[in-house]
Amino acid sequence: MNKLQKIFTRCCQENRAALIIFCSCGYPDMESSEQAIETAINAGADIIELGVPFSDPMADGSIIRKASEVAIRNGATLPKILDMAERLSKRHPETGFILFSYMNILYNYGLEKICRKLPEIGLDGILAVDLPLEEKEELAKPCQENGLHLIALVSPATPLERARKIMSEASGFVYSINVCGVTGVRDLQQQEIVEHLAVLKAHSTVPIAAGFGINDAQAAQRLSQIADGVIVGSAFIKILSGKGEFSQRLEAAREFIADLAKNVRRQP
């Protein structure tokens, strides 16, 4: 059983969804970013999505987009992020780590090279935001050869037959996008999302994690009743980008994630 399987199995045994936190690596700088990820793990995150800043993040809303711009200005690079990830994975060997990136960055580093590197430093998979199903083999093959999960994405706009095809080839977990559009904090039509998740779960052989737009513990609690994992990103970054000293923002982020962790437990 690999690490992600162990995490989802443990969460199921504890009658809760896995808490997955997206972090903008290098925001506001590399040192602070590492502190934020450490804080997220200690507050209850089961899996960390390591967001690699990109100059044209087409899937990201304003909060993560601005964080990426700041991170790039302050010198965040993929090699620095991998160094940080190695330190974090050594300190937290039971936490799942997914590299969340756009394909341009991966191409620049080298697909086979990155797939060899990630298992060496304790990472579990890659989520390539802009990699379509029809072109996934060039990344799927080196992932499989190196024991990495290639995390699949489906959205409410994905036809069921296509979603079934995507999920039939999925590894690790499926990222179910709650809404059409970019990431960000928003009001969710939760009943529609719950119904969509139920359909996906009926056709998937791997866990289903729900993300995009989850802004508070109430939304996380509702989705955790059906989803195997709950993904939060923009709301976490929004707190880190607030006013006051960074230590104060970090404490607010810790409280937010601890509250999420308490509320992803399922009702008896």
Structure, described:
By secondary structure, the chain is of the alpha/beta class. It has a single domain, classed as Alpha-Beta Barrel (TIM Barrel). Helices cover 50% and strands 15% of the residues. The chain is built from twelve helices and nine strands. The chain has helices at 3-13, 30-43, 62-73, 78-91, 103-109, 111-120, 137-145, 160-168, 190-203, 217-224, 234-240, 246-263, and strands at residues 18-24, 47-51, 96-101, 125-128, 149-150, 152-154, 174-177, 208-211, 229-232. A nine-stranded parallel sheet has the order 5-4-3-2-1-9-8-7-6. Helix 2 (30-43) packs parallel to helix 12 and helix 10 runs parallel beside helix 12 (246-263). The model is unreliable at 181-188 (pLDDT under 50).
Compact overview of the structure:
With 268 residues, the chain is α/β, with parallel strands linked by helices. It has 12 helices and 9 strands. Helix content is 50%, strand content 15%.
Determine the strand fraction and express it as a percent band.
Answer: 5-15%
- Element-by-element helix/strand order: HEHEHHEHHEHEEHEHEHEHH
Q: Which residues form runs of ≥5 with pLDDT under 50?
A: 181-188
CATH level 4 superfamily: Aldolase class I
CATH class: Alpha Beta
Rg over CA atoms: 17 Å
Task: Throw out a few tags for this protein.
single chain, 268 residues, alpha/beta, TIM Barrel, 9-stranded parallel beta sheet, 12 helices, 9 strands
Element layout with pairings:
Blueprint: H1 3-13, E1 18-24, H2 30-43, E2 47-51, H3 62-73, H4 78-91, E3 96-101, H5 103-109, H6 111-120, E4 125-128, H7 137-145, E5 149-150, E6 152-154, H8 160-168, E7 174-177, H9 190-203, E8 208-211, H10 217-224, E9 229-232, H11 234-240, H12 246-263
Parallel strand pairs: 1-2, 1-9, 2-3, 3-4, 4-5, 6-7, 7-8, 8-9
Helix pairs in contact: 2-4, 2-12, 6-7, 10-12, 11-12
